[in-house]
Amino acid sequence: MERGLRKQRTRQAISDAATRLFISRGFEEVTIAQVAEAAQVAKMTVTNHFPRKEDLVFDVHESFVASLAAVRDRPLVPVFREAWFGGLERRDALLGFSGPEFARMVVESPTLLARLRELHEERETALATALLAEFDPDTARAAAAQIAGVYRLLFDEVLRRTAASEPAAVVAEAVGRAGARMFDLLEAGLGSL
């Protein structure tokens, strides 16, 4: 138990040090060696915890990818609508909520934006795979693409507005209106599932 806790603390210390460096210097400018030095660990320790440099930024990537597939109830659209609005109320990081400096770091880095697109695709694939338990492959893929697409569009809007230093309450209100419209459109198309 102690070893697991120590590993988690080390992982968090590395992530925190990396985030501070990336925000102050820019993601592209910071090396893994600099992260290791700032976290007071060996370079190998950093790469053991974070195989990709981008994972230092998106350290919740596993939760992000699994988040949609974890929603397993029917009818689909109301369940995803409820989950999304619950996350909006909490200002959940998995919906894109962060501090302005963090959001700017992401939107200013082509590498991080590319990784974020990959994560959205991985999340869509995970959802499609989960939906195969209930639907044929075409229906599962189509539903996953539409649901994940709405989540992606809203995530991008949260990130963009946050990077522009809009207050979280203003961002939440704006994306809440957009989310209601988008989920209404989903309901019209996928309402029978």
TrEMBL record:
Keywords: DNA-binding, Transcription, Transcription regulation. The keyword DNA-binding applies. The keyword Ribonucleoprotein does not apply. It comes from Amycolatopsis methanolica 239. InterPro entries: Homeodomain-like_sf, HTH-type_TetR-like_transc_reg, HTH_TetR. SUPFAM superfamilies: Homeodomain-like. Coiled coil: none annotated. This is TetR family transcriptional regulator. Residues 8-68 form the HTH tetR-type domain. PROSITE patterns: HTH_TETR_2 (PS50977). It holds the Pfam family TetR_N. One of its GO terms (molecular function) is transcription cis-regulatory region binding. Residues 31-50 bind DNA.
